[in-house]
Design goal:
The complex is a heterodimer of chains A (150) and B (133). Chain A has 150 residues and is an alpha+beta fold. Chain A is 22% helix and 35% strand. Helix content of chain B is 84%, strand content 0%. The chains are: A alpha+beta (150), B mainly alpha (133).
Chain lengths: 150, 133
Amino acid sequence: MKVTINQNMEISEDEIIINCSYLDDRLKQLIELIRQYSFSIILYKGNESYHVPLESIFYFDSADGKSFAYTRDKIYEAKESLSDLENRLSTTPFVRISKNCIVNSSCLVKVKPLVNHRLEATLKNNEKVIVSRNYIQLLKEKLLSRGGLI
Amino acid sequence: MKQHNRNLFITSMALCFMYSTIFRSVFNLLSGYPQSSNIFNLQLILFLFIIEGINLLLMKLPFKNYFSFMLTEAIISYPIYLVSAYFFHWFDLTDVKMLLIMTLCFAGIFVLIAGHFYRRDREDADDINNLIP
C-alpha cells in the first residue's frame, strides 16, 4: 500500500483520503480505527483525569451505580452513566450488549452460545463478556453497519 | 432471514396450537362435555407451567455448557413428569411397557425442544462470528 503524507502549515484540518479499487475487510478495519482515532474520552483514576483514545477501550460496564472503562491492562472510572455513554458513542463501534455492559465491537474475537439464549463474547485481551438475549440483534446490526461502513 | 422466518413460524404455530387447545378444552368443559381429552389438555398446560418455572430458575444458575443445563433439566423434569402421570392418571406406572413408551415420548419431546433452542442460539452465534472481521 502506498502512503502519501502532505505536510503543510496552511492545512487547517487533518484529512485522510483513501483511494482504493476495492474496500476489503482489512481496509474497513483500518477506516474504523481512523474514525475512532478522532475520538477520545475523559476518564478518571482516583482524582486524576486522563484523555483515553476510544480504540484502546475494550468495554464499559457498571457496578454500584458507577461506570468503568476497561483497556487492555487498566481500569478507569467514567463520570457518565452507561446510557449517556451509549448515546454519545452511538456512531462509533461501541454497542450495548447487556443492561450493564457496552462493548467495543472492534475488539470482538468470537462469540459462543450459552444457555438462556445468551452469548459469551471473547475479546482481543481474552476477557469474556456476556451478550444478553435482548441485545443480540443490536450487536448484529452494529456489526452489519460496520461492515457496510454506514 | 431464513432463521427469523423459521423461528416466527414455529412460535406462531406453537402459540396457535396452545391457545386453540386451551380455549377448546375450557369451552367444552364449561358447556358440559367433560371428555378426558379436555381435562388432559389443561393438566398438560399445568405440567408445562411447572416445568417452565423450573426452567426459569435453572437459567439463573451458571452452567458450564448446554449439555449440563439440559441434563440437569431432564433429571429434574422426569420425576415431575412421573408424579404428574400418577396423579392425573395419564398412564399406568406399574405397566413396564407403557412406562418405557411414555419415557421414550418424554425423551423424544425433550430432545426436539432442546435441539431447537440450541440450533437457534448456535445460528445466532454463527451469524455474529461471520460478521466479525
